[in-house]
Amino acid sequence: TWSVVWQPLPPSLCLPPSFSIWVCLPFTQPAGVYWCACAPLWSQECGTSVFSTGICVSVSNDLEPRETISPTAQRCATYMDIVIVLDGSNSIYPWYEVQNFLSNILSKFHISPEQMQVGVLQYGEVAVHEWSLRDYQTTQEVVEAAKNISRQEGRETRTAYAIHMGCTEAFSPERGAREGATKVMIVVTDGESHDWEELPDALEECEKRNITRYAIAVLGHYIRRQQDPETFISEIKYIASDPDDKYFFNVTDEAALNDIVDALGDRIFTLEGTLGYNESSFKFEMSQIGFSTHVLDDGILFGMVGAYDWDGGVLKEGAKGRIMPTREAFESEFPQELKNHAAYLGYTVSSVIVGDWRRLYVAGAPRFKHKGKVILFELSDNGDVNIAQALNGEQIGSYYGSEVCGLDVDQDGITDVLLVAAPMYLGPGNKEAGRVYIYSLSGEVFVSNGTLKAEDRFQDARFGYALASAPDLNHDGYTDLLVGAPLEDGHNGAIYVYHGQGIHIIHNYKQRIAGSSLSPSLQYFGRSVSARLDLDGDGLLDLAVGAQGSAVLLSSRSIVQINMSLSFQPHSINVIQKTCQRGGRESACLNATACFLALSQLSVVAMLDERKLTARALFDDSNQRQTQLGVRVHTGQTVCHNLPIHVFDTADYIRPISFSLRFKINDTESGPVLDEGWPTTFKRSVSVWGVYCGEDDVCVTDLVLQLYECLNVTPLCRQQPYVIRSPRRRLAVEVQLQNRLENAYNTSLTLHYSRNLHISSHSIRVRNTHTTHTTQTHTHKNTLHTDLQHEPDNFILSPPPSLSSSLPFDVSIPIFLSLSFPLSRRIPS
Fold first, then answer.
1. Cα 256 → chain centroid
2. In terms of one coarse class, where is the protein primarily found (predicted)?
3. Pick from 274, 332, 341, 337: which is nearest to 312 by CA?
4. Is the N or C terminus of the chain more exposed, i.e. has fewer CB atoms within 10 Å?
């Protein structure tokens, strides 16, 4: 079995601080298994605007990009092909003013392959392509090219011919026109056309190709000659698209062309960044796709935190296509009157499986009403939303719902626990301590079941900034939880490991890993966490933790459970028959076999009779009660060691001899560690054979004691508690001891008597014993103590034998005349 003790694997993976990237879990495509890497702040320039649509890319296991995923990326409104049709006839004067206008208007355009392309066609009597749409890729290039345009000259102004040529040739694919690009023509002329009768046909060609036309009338020639320009203005208005107030311009002379540069630029890309150009709010231009992702069996669920003016939303990209619910689909929980409050729906996304195997999608909105909200909902293929449950935060500014995590603790396929983080929850001292709310599944809804918090210290922690499930870190069959707290310890950061049990998460954390313990330079360690793969190939689940500018890889260390067994040969100690000699003495010998099953190097200490002051058995190798050995065991293999022991004569054969093994694991710095709570001591006992105590080898005795006081030292004794006075100066006491059950060992009799009695003699009679015997008797301070023994071992009082002891006393009358004295007796076994 395995648990988690983390070590850093150098070197750390460093990323440029300016590059924001998220990595989602592996997902399956028809061509294989890929990773998903997202850059939610990836932006595209569209004219003067910058839109953070976000982008993701599928990456193979060898880190090769495969496919770009950018469901909210849109073609810029400035994706235009622009052709300037420029009058270069003799009447245009001075030409450098026209060049200045051309340079100024071109510098307003955002020219690139993804935005604008510009071509210039100059005409007089003939028309010439100065450059085509595909010729230049940057604004700088076209501005430089404009400085080198010379006037075409010509006595006639064939405007219709030039427009027709522009529509049919300049916008052709051969000259770089792009499919889907908005086609714009800007016609600049200073006089009536000499081929005005051909204008209808030329403009019809433009209409067929959806070419929008801006027309600029330069009145300098008419003003200098004091001619009426009305006919000329009418013709230019006819050339311009409708309405005239949007597409028609007139200027007094060539120099005044520069006065309309800004207005012309604004009208060409009226409202950059909106699909309809005339909308005043954003839909998906700022969606930041990839800010949160969740891999599903049939696709990927994306959070669109910036969609719909930062109210947020979700998007599913999968086998059935793209599913993008509208803002109105969530209206029941996110009313329209709060549409400008920036709820950030989609800040985090996930999914859970409830009791009827129904999948519910989960999305957090940490800024909803400033307290935060989490919704659980169903999403149909046509984008309809059915909200099943909503959970609400309790503290303003806590960012409740900024992170969610569903756990299938018992790994039966049903989500047991939903965790919702509020990392900015203010704790004691107004510190951003953070907390994680626990919701347990009850039926088909989740109910509150307490919270998780960081250590009780007055500090900023942002506990819950990152949450991740870990599939059974300690191999107990339950899913575990990882929680990041990147502001702990002065922004060094930390992560917490919680273990699952049953269908719940144990509320007390099992391990805390401080970033400062890995490297003092780490900052914001725990801002992201993941535990999905074996990164170093050792067969153990490893952990990746994000920090500022670094990704730290932590390797799991294996933790072992030591399975032990202990056997004896023979199975018990024969106290009657000695089988060997040790130290020149007859002894009972046996062999203990200790076996171990694990993967580690162990240091083992074996001990005999550890609770006794004097050991009854010793090891042969050390002639001591204790011995030490080293053991190396391998996975799936049992390693056994023989430990010969011997037993000398002893006064205690009643209790079995205990045998204990105490072990520890060597190389705890880099090797495995013992599973927490697993015992480090193994104990067995070996029974004594020949004690005749039944099949259980436990002697259960029933000693019956009777005492008789004989005043005349005759068989006519009586059982009386007190003797007032004897007419004679002699008193006899007879004690009878009988065992009615199993053998009694180490039997002794103790008689306490008054100090006015003096023992004159002592005799013992034993009946129905199976052994020879002796007695050892001694007196001390009015106490008689008798031990009954057999040679060479202890006396055995076997059923049904009895023992009688007669003790005549001399009575000292002068001292205790007319006084009574008690007789007490105590017989331990």
1. 67
2. membrane
3. 341
4. N
Please provide the DSSP assignment of 371-386 as one string.
T-EEEEEEE-TTS-EE
- Give the DSSP letter of residue 656: P
625, 657 in Cβ contact below 8 A?
no
Question: What is the edge-to-edge ordering of all strands in the sheet holding 182-189?
Answer: 127-131, 116-123, 80-87, 182-189, 211-218, 248-251
Characterize 93-127 residue by residue with b for buried, 16 or more Cβ atoms within 10 angstroms of its Cβ, and e for exposed. beeebbbbbbbbbbebbbbeeebbbbbbbbbbbeb
> Could you tell me which of 157, 59, 46 has the C-alpha nearest to residue 109?
46
Among residues 557, 581, 611, the one where a domain terminates is 557
The answer to whether position 383 is within a domain reads yes
Residue at a domain's end among 221, 247, 268: 268
pLDDT in tens, 228-238: 999 999 999 99
**Cα 149 from chain centroid (whole Å):** 65
Pairing of the two strands 673-674 and 550-560: parallel
Rg (CA), the chain: 50
Q: Which helix (H) or strand (E) holds 813?
A: helix 813-816
Cα separation of 596 and 598, whole Å? 7
Give the type of residue at 563: N
Burial of 211 (C-beta count, 10 Å sphere; 0-12/13-18/19+): buried
Residue 642: give the domain boundaries. Answer: 563-689
Question: Do the Cβ atoms of 446 and 402 come closer than 8 Å?
Answer: no
Please count the other Cβ atoms lying within 10 Å of the Cβ belonging to residue 139.
18
> Is 41 exposed, middle or buried, given 0-12, 13-18 or 19+ CB atoms closer than 10 A?
middle
**Cα–Cα distance, 321 to 796 (Å, whole number):** 92
- Total domains, the chain: 4
Total Cβ atoms within 10 A of residue 486: 30
**Residue 309: helix, strand or coil by DSSP?**
helix
The residues, any chain, with a CB within 8 Å of residue 230's CB and separated by 6 or more, are none
Pick the closest to residue 299 from 485, 651, 34 (CA basis).
Answer: 34
Tokens representing residue 17 in the block: 């601080």
| Residue 494, domain member (yes or no) | yes
**462/343 same-domain check:** yes
Q: Are 572 and 684 members of one domain?
A: yes
692 in the Ramachandran plot: left (φ > 0), alpha (ψ -120 to 50) or beta?
A: left
Q: Residues 422-453: pLDDT tens digits?
A: 999 998 888 999 999 999 999 999 999 999 99
Examine the domain organization and report whether 671 and 762 are in the same domain. no
Q: Is the peptide bond before 17 cis (omega within 30 degrees of 0)?
A: no
Q: Where are the alpha helices (DSSP H) in 179-311?
A: 199-208, 220-224, 230-239, 244-247, 261-268, 307-310
Binning pLDDT at 50, 70 and 90, where does residue 456 land?
confident
Domain with residue 756: its CATH number is: 2.60.40.1170
Count Cα atoms within 13 angstroms, Cβ side, for 48: 9
Do 244 and 335 fall within a single domain?
no
Contact 426, 397 (CB under 8 A): yes
State the distance between the two ends of the chain, measured CA to CA, in whole angstroms.
48
59 touches 68 (CB < 8 A): no
